[in-house]
Amino acid sequence: MSFTRRVMVATLATAGLALSSFGALAADKKITLGFAQVGAESEWRTANTKSIKETMEKEGINLKFSDAQQKQENQIKAIRSYIAQKVDVIAFAPVVQTGWDPVLKEAKAAKIPVILTDRNIETSDPSLYVTMIGSDFTEEGRKAGRWLLENYKGDGDVRIVELQGTVGSAPAIERKKGFDEVIKAQPRFKVVRSQTGDFTRAKGKEVMEAFLKAENNKINVLYAHNDDMAIGAIQAIEEAGLKPGKDIIVIGVDAVKGAFEAMAAGKMNVTVECNPLLGPQLAQAARDVLAGKQLPKWTPTKESMYTADQAAKELPNRKY
Ligand code: GYE
């Protein structure tokens, strides 16, 4: 090989490596992915975890998995341990929106790419993560609001209670924002109580009991930021001697099987879909980033919504 040719080959090889700022991974090396999950708070989360575990197994990606029990400090610890273990890629579903910059800077310094799944973050430096794979929560909130304005029958003030998701989480903040944005067009629709139910059935039931007491049962609509809280609240409504889905309109988000069952039983009116099956997109994104490909900053998932009259027919087709 001539000198110039040798130099050219060397330059090309360096350019190839430089394509990825995260260091090259030999094509035949098994990828190790460290995933820091939020917790196991809802049916949605269980389906999300299952999708990630099953996909990585199938794809031959070595998965390190941790469950943060809805606590940011646990997720930060998990991310630090993935950095210490020198995994190839870190992915996580951030429990809350803020407070990630310090740990993400540590990942960046270690040249480990970070992929966000499900929930987004607020950061002063967007280069701290490669891409975000997940839903448009504000649009989900708008869909819930629009459905209500278009389908509510009855005159006078409409008294709405809201069960919010985990305090500080992207879906809680944005589902509230989108819903408020739409309903403010008709001032007779009023959110009279709004409190967190932490995305769980137990808390949804407990807070709904308190709402019913405080409002002396005078509630027309429940808007729950996820189906699990709606299902917990349905129990509270029944125990108060009222009919969920009739006396109180019940709106949820996620479109998990439990919501379809409640709708088929006439106890819930509508659920806005939020797709938890993110495993395949995550595996692809991990491969792409390690191959030095440029990824879009956000890949929104495609979603629809389902009403009670579609529930019985749709239930057998649901995958989560
Ligand atoms: O809606 C809820 C879960 O972040 C989209 O988290 C997710 C939300 C989902 O606990 O059920």
Give a description of the structure:
The chain is of the alpha/beta class and 320 residues long. It folds into 2 domains: 3-134 and 276-301, 3-Layer(aba) Sandwich (Rossmann fold); 137-274, Response regulator (Rossmann fold, 3-Layer(aba) Sandwich), CATH 3.40.50. It contains 11 helices and 12 strands. A 6-stranded parallel beta sheet has the order 2-1-3-4-5-11, sandwiched between helices. The model is unreliable at 1-20 (pLDDT under 50). The chain binds beta-D-fucofuranose. Beta-D-fucofuranose binds at residues 41-42, 44-45, 118-119, 171, 199, 226, 228, 253-254, 274.
Helix-residue proportion: 40-55%
Q: How is the main sheet built?
A: 6 strands, parallel
Fourth CATH level, the homologous superfamily of the largest domain:
Response regulator
Main-sheet strand order equals: 2-1-3-4-5-11
Question: Secondary-structure element order, as H and E?
Answer: HEHEHEHEEHEHEHEHEHEHEEH
Nearest-integer average pLDDT: 92
At the fold tier of CATH, the topology name of the largest domain is: Rossmann fold
Q: Low-confidence segments, ≥5 residues, pLDDT <50?
A: 1-20
Report the end-to-end length measured between terminal Cα atoms.
59 Å
Shape: elongated
Can you give me a brief rundown of this structure?
The protein is α/β, with parallel strands linked by helices and 320 residues long. Helices cover 43% and strands 18% of the residues. Helix 4 (101-109) links the parallel strand 3 and strand 4 (114-117).
Please give the structural blueprint.
Elements: H1 3-18, E1 32-37, H2 43-59, E2 62-67, H3 72-84, E3 89-92, H4 101-109, E4 114-117, E5 131-134, H5 137-151, E6 158-164, H6 170-183, E7 189-196, H7 201-214, E8 221-224, H8 227-239, E9 249-254, H9 257-264, E10 270-273, H10 279-290, E11 298-300, E12 305-307, H11 308-314
Parallel strand pairs: 1-2, 1-3, 3-4, 4-5, 5-11, 6-7, 6-8, 8-9, 9-10
Antiparallel strand pairs: 10-12
Bound molecules: beta-D-fucofuranose.
